Amino acid sequence: GEDVEQSLFLSVREGDSSVINCTYTDSSSTYLYWYKQEPGAGLQLLTYIFSNMDMKQDQRLTVLLNKKDKHLSLRIADTQTGDSAIYFCAENLGTGRRALTFGSGTRLQVQP
Amino acid sequence: GAVVSQHPSWVICKSGTSVKIECRSLDFQATTMFWYRQFPKQSLMLMATSNEGSKATYEQGVEKDKFLINHASLTLSTLTVTSAHPEDSSFYICSARDRTSGRGYEQYFGPGTRLTVT
Known about the structure:
The complex is a heterodimer. By secondary structure, chain A is mainly β.
């Protein structure tokens, strides 16, 4: 089955950049996603990248996709305390499927 | 933007009882909704795909007789946990796709329902 892996924890200082990494296995995914989950809450779609793109920038967020290595990263510029949350990368569960498979989540802690 | 609600947000029930969780798309129609389960400090795992007007599709290892899914309308799917046991305690999250949206990436998540079985 599909497997999406992430590092579990990242701590940065306010104002620094954060980089969260993810590796995935299903090369047929059309889109790859980054979701944010705050404590006790549901998931918020932060950004996504189409599989034929290498990079996408959206304000403070930059997504890099390396299809050869099946590596996805999310860079948050000028990280703020409000960015503290768990970040999940996700891909479609399989060819033609809309359901998602998620990584284990990276807990980002932003220190003032 | 599209909003998905869940009700209740938090429920405590006794072992052996059944609990119904609702997932509603508030401002769009959803022919397909998904039910995920999240254990503490873990990722989300897909339980089943809820299809309007037809039977749900369950993932391997998920008991369909224990987790009853009904998708009776284009805006409502329900998940009933039957004969709940403490090991069913979890965070249940639904998501929905707007059937009219041409943007295949868009899937909207509900806020989740925390179930505690005592």
